[in-house]
Structure to design on (752 residues):
């Protein structure tokens, strides 16, 4: 454990040391964003290749809701086990399904900052800016209101804006909480195990529209994340939000899809994309 | 229903000793209201116990119940006549003095709209004295009071989660039957076995939703609702909030009435309630739910358009219209509840409301299209996005309605909250603090907002409660 880690943990958590820095979790193709969990004092998420040790005395809080029809995930609520002095909300927004999409994490943080004016009851204490945490580029904004202090950190990660919303009752505690992210370990998403994020795959979208017309489903559109292997076969289907029977039907159906290979620099590569199956309005 | 009845309050009085201690902490805030819940010790970040208190329902005359501003004379006449119709009391065939409405039962929860929609005045929600208690044995009926109904508790309807074969039920199972009533000779059906349903944890409850100002809600274009949600996208994503709209299976537009936003329009809302809650068949819901042949006493539908004048108000539109059209008109043309005048404390509380993220779901403001009735677009403050949100295991009722799943509920509009007695979908509490805390449980979108609430200093917490009771 690095000395700085120990010092931060001592100051923040009254002498309690953080769990030892973990080995990074390798991203896998069949993991889904919501599959993360706290194990042995470490929040691990194989989809995002993230391992974040919880400071001693911190625990996983209440479970968040299931992933939404907009492709939004509450990944973890972290909180002190005893007195609620601070919280860390880890969330992710899929770039495929947000009705008011942003291009990246910087835009997401900027959008938040614009909405966090006086009419929102919040005051920006530091404007949006880029910071490096554990060798990862984050966009950061700090704000406060009603005696609470907040930091929103967001980074681009596998077709998602991955965010860390930190809240504390005093600015010093908030700063220490932000610095606790130094202890996170990230696996590179540049390696071949991680498919390329492709926002729009025309062939898949055409197929989705045809399926929507055939199924004539009612209700909310169903967002589906696809991983398409280098040979064009659908390798993984992730129905993000749907009733169970619908999810099972779509998983079976979409797993049979195949497309022409996606080429980058003339070479076929695996991609990750999203399609929506839903009512044709 | 008179204001003298509905002005009674059920808030427990605090002990003098507790009150004295509380005054030290919260004296600046108590000017807002006159009735308070018992003070609660809530955990503070410092580990000490801080006392904050729900001020309780706001006293004084009802700040609701009038007509929408800007109505012309004919529409105002319709509103007033429809309000009278809303107070109609039904019996089985309309032959009992004072109960001249036709069509009660065979199964029902109450015999009139205004009995349930009564607090703080006609059109509101559950009153202090539960009218279900008296109607159980009215006119010779022999109903027993289910264990979840009490004289000073909330008006409740009951829904069963599952059918006996394990398939989803979700429907309303009326509390009472007309068996034994003087106007239901020969009918001999039994009440549902609520004791067994309770034993099997197979019954959930809903209380009446207030109807004030709902014409404004009906008249918000879908695009405005969507834009209101999208404008808060950044805030919501920093708080773990998502949500979705419930939609009509017929035309795909956003539905917005009822605890799960399951009803498309006020007419649908009225027609469904008339049949389900009172057993009165109508032009939208023309079939009796209970088909026992010995309990059918009227031609169907029991409520329909009047082709000849049967009543003579000063509104022919009302007189010719069916009951459900009148009920819808009363709701559509009613004014929104008026908040108490703002004070420095409630203004501070409003700031707290915004800064901890309550407005992520309880969107403050919405704007209507130009109204046929007022010839203008209106911006109003319902404090709801009218979307459905996952509210966690603690509030889940296991009932699916349209796109709303078993743990999803429409964001309850907070306007008029200051004069409500019973809170949450099932009326389980009258204490605002308990209601707020109930928003947090595994699976809830509100967990971070409630964590923020719990981290607030006591002064801010109290200001928030006072603000909410000023609505």
């Amino acid at each position: 454990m690095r000395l700085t880690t120990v010092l931060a943990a001592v100051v923040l958590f009254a002498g309690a040391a953080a769990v030892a820095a973990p080995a990074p979790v390798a991203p896998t193709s069949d993991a889904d964003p919501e599959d993360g969990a706290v194990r042995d004092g470490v929040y691990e998420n194989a989809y995002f290749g993230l391992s974040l040790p919880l400071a001693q005395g911190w625990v996983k809080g209440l479970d968040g809701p299931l992933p939404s029809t907009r492709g939004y995930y509450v990944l973890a609520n972290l909180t002190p086990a005893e007195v609620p002095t601070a919280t860390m909300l880890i969330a992710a927004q899929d770039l495929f399904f947000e009705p008011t999409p942003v291009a990246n994490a910087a835009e997401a943080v900027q959008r938040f900052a614009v909405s966090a004016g006086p009419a929102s009851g919040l005051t920006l204490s530091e404007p949006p800016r880029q910071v490096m945490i554990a060798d990862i580029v984050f966009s950061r904004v700090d704000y406060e209101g009603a005696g609470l202090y907040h930091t929103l950190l967001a980074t681009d990660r596998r077709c998602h804006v991955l965010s860390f919303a930190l809240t504390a009752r005093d600015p010093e505690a908030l700063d220490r909480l932000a610095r606790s992210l130094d202890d996170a370990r990230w696996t590179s998403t540049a390696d071949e195990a991680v498919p390329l994020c492709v926002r729009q795959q025309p062939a898949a979208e055409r197929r989705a529209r045809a399926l929507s017309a055939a199924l004539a489903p009612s209700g909310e559109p169903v967002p589906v994340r696809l991983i398409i292997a280098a040979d064009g076969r659908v390798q993984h289907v992730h129905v993000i939000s749907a009733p169970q029977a619908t999810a099972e039907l779509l998983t079976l159906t979409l797993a049979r899809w195949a497309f022409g290979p996606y080429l980058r620099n003339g070479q076929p590569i695996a991609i990750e994309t999203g399609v929506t199956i839903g009512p044709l309005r | 229903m008179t204001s003298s009845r509905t002005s009674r309050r059920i808030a427990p009085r605090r002990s003098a000793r507790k009150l004295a201690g509380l005054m030290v902490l919260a004296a600046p805030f108590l000017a807002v209201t006159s009735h308070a819940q018992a003070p609660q010790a809530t955990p503070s970040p410092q580990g000490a116990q801080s006392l904050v208190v729900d001020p309780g329902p706001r006293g004084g005359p009802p700040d609701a119940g009038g007509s929408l501003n800007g109505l012309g004379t004919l529409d105002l006449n319709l509103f007033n006549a429809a309000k009278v119709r809303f107070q109609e009391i039904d019996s089985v065939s309309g032959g009992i003095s004072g109960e001249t409405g036709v069509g009660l039962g065979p199964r029902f929860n109450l015999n009139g709209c205004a009995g349930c929609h009564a607090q703080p005045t006609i059109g509101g929600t559950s009153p202090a004295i539960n009218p279900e208690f008296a109607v159980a044995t009215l006119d010779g009926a022999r109903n027993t009071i289910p264990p979840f109904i009490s004289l000073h508790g909330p008006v409740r309807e009951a829904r069963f989660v599952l059918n006996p074969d394990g398939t989803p039920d979700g429907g309303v199972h009326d509390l009472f039957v007309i068996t034994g009533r003087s106007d239901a000779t020969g009918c001999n059906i039994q009440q549902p076995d609520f004791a067994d349903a309770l034993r099997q944890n197979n019954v959930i409850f809903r209380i009446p939703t207030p109807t004030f100002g709902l014409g404004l809600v009906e008249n918000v274009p879908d695009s405005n609702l969507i834009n209101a949600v999208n404008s808060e996208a950044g805030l919501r994503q920093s708080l773990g909030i998502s949500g979705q709209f419930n939609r009509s299976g017929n035309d795909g537009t956003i539905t917005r009435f009822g605890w799960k936003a399951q009803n498309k329009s006020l007419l649908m809302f009225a027609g469904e309630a008339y049949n389900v809650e009172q057993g009165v068949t109508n032009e939208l819901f023309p079939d009796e739910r209970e088909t026992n042949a010995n309990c059918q006493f009227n031609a169907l539908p029991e409520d329909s358009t009047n082709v000849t004048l049967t009543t003579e108000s000063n509104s022919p539109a009302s007189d010719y219209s069916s009951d459900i059209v009148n009920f819808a008109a009363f709701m559509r043309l009613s004014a929104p509840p008026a908040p108490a005048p703002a004070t420095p404390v409630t203004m501070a509380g409003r700031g707290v409301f915004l800064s901890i993220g309550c407005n992520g779901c309880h969107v403050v403001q919405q704007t209507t299209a130009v109204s046929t009735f007022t010839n203008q677009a209106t911006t109003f403050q319902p404090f709801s996005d009218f979307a459905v949100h996952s509210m966690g295991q603690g509030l889940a009722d296991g009932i699916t309605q349209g796109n709303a799943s078993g743990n999803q509920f429409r964001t309850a509009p907070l306007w008029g909250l200051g004069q409500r007695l019973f809170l949450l979908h099932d009326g389980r509490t009258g204490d605002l603090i308990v209601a707020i805390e109930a928003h947090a449980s595994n699976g809830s979108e509100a967990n971070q907002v409630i964590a923020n609430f719990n981290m607030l200093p006591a002064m801010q917490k109290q200001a928030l409660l006072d603000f909410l009771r000023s609505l």
